[in-house]
């Protein structure tokens, strides 16, 4: 009876959504240039609203933590004995969710990202954790300090924020994604790479592996200084395809192995219509932080930026996603502070992730002869407070990639 009620409500919601889209089509006219963008945004919002709405009637798609071992980015906890330590670890992640009433994204009327911004919020969570790892360590726990406040400041919903929803949405335009449309894991990864180019004093190199092929020689080339050969701390993002329409079970163990590694900083992916930030696993279910909660945006003009009220940016609530519900498009990430960290990561990937029939991607020490040699990015001597013009950046590799076939978190 419970499942029947859920099904009936979902059918009615989908029927109403169809009629609303037909009405919009008639009002705007078939030849209106904004029709498709409007319909896409409307469709995304409806689908997320339906997902949020039906979640109240069934928790079938979510799992609860069980007693036993749970893994969080290389750290293992035994529940219930270590539940407090586990919750403190989870709470120390910056949690970004939907927000409303922020300043409109330039050139649009969007003042909320509800219905379309879940992947953007997930990449914010992944990158903010990387910055915390970069400035502190994996052992850092949530407490106020100036450097932590500075990191959070860069992610506020402020057009001037380095990694704000406004900046990430505009960066996605360089990969052909209109503001208000869904990002897939690859576009989210590329957007962060683009934005990192304008934060050179951070001393963090962001690289995105393309076409399921990782060339160690090229990663090292971009992660060392040209003059002295010193190592630049690296965030390595690897977009993957784990199946056609659903995840192949042979990839489950390699994905879990990735979360076991100390260099892992999580993954962005999800299930159809919903993106999540994955931070570990328990048994055969992936542990994630969920951005699908709409909160009021903090106005940077009305708060103390030297001590940002951050209670709404942390949570102890986590969910578990069964493997069979995972969308096959996912991007997994690693942070390597030193060259030794990177070499150790490569050794682990060769042994357990990129070998055998369940290899997640191809990995080579040297660049094949048919590949174009890498070139360093031309962005140099940018004036202070330069406003990003994303067309100036090198996104041709992303645009030319055939990864678009698995870029979108499928709409089904």
Structure description:
The protein contains 11 helices and 13 strands. It has helices at residues 2-28, 35-55, 83-91, 118-135, 146-153, 165-172, 185-196, 216-222, 252-260, 339-352, 396-400; strands spanning 68-72, 75-79, 99-100, 205-208, 213-215, 234-241, 264-271, 274-282, 285-289, 295-296, 319-322, 329-336, 362-364. Strands 1, 2, 4, 6, 7, 8, 9, 11 and 12 form a 9-stranded mixed β-sheet that branches. The protein has a two-stranded parallel ribbon with strand order 3-10. The protein has a two-stranded parallel sheet with strand order 5-13. Helix 1 (2-28) packs antiparallel against helix 2 (35-55), helix 4 runs antiparallel to helix 5 (146-153) and helix 4 (118-135) crosses helix 7. The longest helix has 27 residues, at 2-28. The protein starts with a helix and ends in a 12-residue tail after the last helix.
Biggest sheet character: 9 strands, mixed
Q: Order of SSEs, N→C? A: HHEEHEHHHHEEHEHEEEEEEHEH
Principal-axes geometry comes out as globular
Poorly predicted residue ranges: 1-7, 50-60, 379-412
Give the N-terminus to C-terminus distance in angstroms. 25 Å
Q: Summary?
A:
This protein is an alpha+beta fold and 412 residues long.
SSE arrangement:
Blueprint: H1 2-28, H2 35-55, E1 68-72, E2 75-79, H3 83-91, E3 99-100, H4 118-135, H5 146-153, H6 165-172, H7 185-196, E4 205-208, E5 213-215, H8 216-222, E6 234-241, H9 252-260, E7 264-271, E8 274-282, E9 285-289, E10 295-296, E11 319-322, E12 329-336, H10 339-352, E13 362-364, H11 396-400
Parallel strand pairs: 3-10, 4-6, 5-13
Antiparallel strand pairs: 1-2, 1-8, 6-12, 7-8, 7-12, 8-9, 9-11
